Amino acid sequence: MKWRCTWCGKPHAEDDPPCDACGHNTFEKAVVRREGEAPPRTETVDTGTTYVWVCPNCGREHVRYNPPCARCGEHDLEKTEQTYDSVDRDLDVPGWLEVAKPYVPAFAVIGLVALLFAAGIVSPSILPGIGHPSPPDAPGDGTEVAGIDLEETELLVHERLESERTGGGTRYDDDLAAFAEYHNRAFVAQEYDDANPDPAGRDEFGVDCSVDPASRSLSLTGSPIDDYNDEAALADDIAAALLASSIGDDVRTSYPGEGLDVHATDDGAVHVTYVSC
């Protein structure tokens, strides 16, 4: 009686798996049918042991003895009993914590940056394409000098100018104020440090003017900032200087929005840039 491989059907003289053609480890009796007989019933013989040919150089398993090794080219393969000890290990699914562990440092950095932005410690403008362009470095200060809060002064100037207008109201626009700050700092840097800051257009600050803009830069050098007792007194002089300047009529006009920046240098001079549109 002859035997044949249950996988590829190759006949074999003896029941001696594995199949030398495909490496399968199960043979069945090959029964020859006589004419007119019903199809024979086959009996499957399970040898119980499966073998593979392992490359001693790289460890790759092959289902049949067919050197050289498909991975490294080794010309010798060793017949080895196949085990499935690694199957359970390969099927283990890691938990989400194990998967996320390598990314914890990156998550921590992202969370810290988000916290700094939310707290206002770091401006989003440091990121490309986000926020207003950062104003250039300039000598002096644009926040507080000699006990005078310059940012509060800017809002008081806006109130003084609003009181001079007869038709409608003009809002104080933060985008215009940021635009004014950039150009005021650039002016001071050029005058005091011979710097050459990069130019910046209104569109970089989100400013879309529906009317022709009015802008003016001026310096109050007659009275140093140390001579002012409070923000209100400084705001009165800045508003008066703007109304008396070449754009005084424009300042009195009710533009949709306006913004300005006040910056004081170490010599006590007060520098102002005003923009409305």
How does this structure look, described?
The model has no long low-confidence stretch (mean pLDDT 82). This protein has a four-stranded antiparallel beta sheet, with no helix packed on it. A four-stranded mixed beta sheet has the order 10-12-13-11. With 277 residues, it is of the alpha+beta class. It has helices spanning 85-91, 96-100, 104-119, 150-163, 174-193, 231-243, 248-252; strands at residues 2-5, 11-12, 26-30, 44-46, 51-54, 61-62, 78-81, 144-145, 148-149, 171-172, 214-220, 257-264, 270-276. The chain is built from seven helices and 13 strands. The chain starts with a strand and ends with a strand. Among the domains are: 96-122, no CATH class; 144-276, CAP (Pathogenesis-related Protein p14a), CATH 3.40.33.
List keywords for this structure.
277 residues, alpha+beta, 4-stranded antiparallel β-sheet, 4-stranded mixed β-sheet, 7 helices
What's the arrangement of secondary structure elements?
Elements: E1 2-5, E2 11-12, E3 26-30, E4 44-46, E5 51-54, E6 61-62, E7 78-81, H1 85-91, H2 96-100, H3 104-119, E8 144-145, E9 148-149, H4 150-163, E10 171-172, H5 174-193, E11 214-220, H6 231-243, H7 248-252, E12 257-264, E13 270-276
Parallel strand pairs: 10-12
Antiparallel strand pairs: 1-2, 1-3, 3-4, 5-6, 5-7, 8-9, 11-13, 12-13
Helix pairs in contact: 4-6
Rg over CA atoms, rounded to whole Å, is: 43 Å
Percent of residues in beta strands: 15-25%
- The main sheet orders its strands as 2-1-3-4
Q: What is the CATH architecture term of the domain at 144-276?
A: 3-Layer(aba) Sandwich
Helix-strand topology string = EEEEEEEHHHEEHEHEHHEE
Computed structural class: alpha+beta
- The tally of helices reads 7
CATH superfamily assignment of the domain at 144-276? CAP
How would you sum up the major sheet? 4 strands, antiparallel
> What CATH first level of the domain at 144-276 would be assigned?
Alpha Beta
Total beta-strand segments: 13
Gross morphology: rod-shaped
User: For the terminal residues, how far apart are their CA atoms?
Assistant: 103 Å
Q: Helicity level, as a percent range?
A: 25-40%
**Average pLDDT score:** 82
Unreliable residue runs: none
CATH domain topology of the domain at 144-276:
Pathogenesis-related Protein p14a
